[in-house]
UniProtKB/TrEMBL annotation, chains A, B:
Annotated keywords: DNA-binding, Transcription, Transcription regulation
Name used for this protein in its record: DNA-binding GntR family transcriptional regulator
PANTHER family: HTH-TYPE TRANSCRIPTIONAL REGULATOR MCBR, TRANSCRIPTIONAL REGULATOR, GNTR FAMILY
Domain of life: Bacteria
Keyword Ribosomal protein recorded: no
SUPFAM superfamilies in the record: GntR ligand-binding domain-like, Winged helix' DNA-binding domain
Span of domain HTH gntR-type: 17-84
Organism: Rhizobium mongolense USDA 1844
Amino acid sequence: MDESTTAGASGSEGHQGRLSDYVYESLKDQLTRGAYSPGKKLPIRTVAETLGVGSTPAREAINRLVFEGALVMSGPKTVIVPYLDLAGLYEVTQMRLALEGLAAEKGAANATGETVETLLKLQEKISLSLDEKRYRDALHVNKEFHFTIYRLCGMPHLLSTIEALWLRVGSSFHDLYPEFAEQRYGVHNHMVAIEALAEGEASFVRAAMENDIRDGYRRLKKAAMSRVGHRAAPSG
Amino acid sequence: MDESTTAGASGSEGHQGRLSDYVYESLKDQLTRGAYSPGKKLPIRTVAETLGVGSTPAREAINRLVFEGALVMSGPKTVIVPYLDLAGLYEVTQMRLALEGLAAEKGAANATGETVETLLKLQEKISLSLDEKRYRDALHVNKEFHFTIYRLCGMPHLLSTIEALWLRVGSSFHDLYPEFAEQRYGVHNHMVAIEALAEGEASFVRAAMENDIRDGYRRLKKAAMSRVGHRAAPSG
DNA sequence: TTGTGATTTTTGTTGTAACATAATTGCAAT
DNA sequence: ATTGCAATTATGTTACAACAAAAATCACAA
């Protein structure tokens, strides 16, 4: 790069390694936080200038997110944050049930006492976050809870595919914030999962996690349906 | 592009649309045909010059394939065709069972008499190809057979994920050619699937397809194990 | 006010050069 | 012969400019 120092100077962020990855992680972070409202356009040059990098890494990151389904194309040269779509939500949920169910059951076989300890601590964090209405934190720890179980199976390909699915639905989570605390999302299923894990009942762990996914689906579905009316006029 | 006509002239291929896609499809095609032996390096400039394009579309296509798992990085700046790996093969097989099982069962619910006709014709083609030892054709029609069923479920995201899995194992198929005809790969399972489909027994269709995947896994596994000895010295 | 066509602006794609670093080669010492 | 290190080559990454096409804007007429 002929101006490698410029990016660091103008952006002043403490990143290292490939700029493509930096842009990718930045956008991914914003998306999973629901910072972008559905329909928002993300042109290459705008993203590049915002993050103080050239158009090449910005383009690569955006294309990667489009490929993953975290962003969608509304036209031949227009990339936007996807609208919540009932059919797509159903699809992703079915895939999540299949793959996360698999990961949970396989992972449960490798659980240790330490795993149970970790999960209990994470669940406490979730409850505390819900109490204090720190929804973003709750969401973050909730993800950590799931993947703590899934990671046990030792299948990195499976893990990355599941992460891609989370990224796909992630941009819809901001609709859940209000209801998130009141419904004590996931508390019951998580406790059941922990108990089953401690008892070595792998299939029960799977069922608990699947129920958790289904419960989340019902909430996302409601949010999606309530927005169908607003979707006719995508104002960008 | 400042020399858009150069690419078309030098390559003289009849492609249109994005050059990235052209490179991607070309490489994908070579990989699924087993044209590249595991360990082969694929540098950006080499691929670009071979196909008569700039380095940008070549880079994008290669990165995409790496992301999909069809190519792997053996070092920080070295992309190679992946070696057959037992653990990875197991992973992909588990994922295939989960997702293709899902697609088969959901798809079976939407099957029609026409579907059965199509599948029977495809199966005839497979048998004919096996008789005449046209393994590549058999492999191609075999894929068409599977996806004819999977497409019925009407879940494009699921379909594309399954396709990515096929691409991952695709580069290993060339090891199967000799045994392919003798074992009449997939014939029995396919016929069971067709019958179950005609009778509307969705779960039986799923089971038949899953058995087909397991049978293929056993063969790929044998090929992988027989090559472990040669893998210590990746000659490139 | 609304629809339609032309004009202007925006934007994705691609080739290229420069740079840093990984990969390779060559050489010398043991 | 083999190992370790230095020099050389090869290669991925990035910024940038030019181009084509899409998107937005605008003007004008119904």
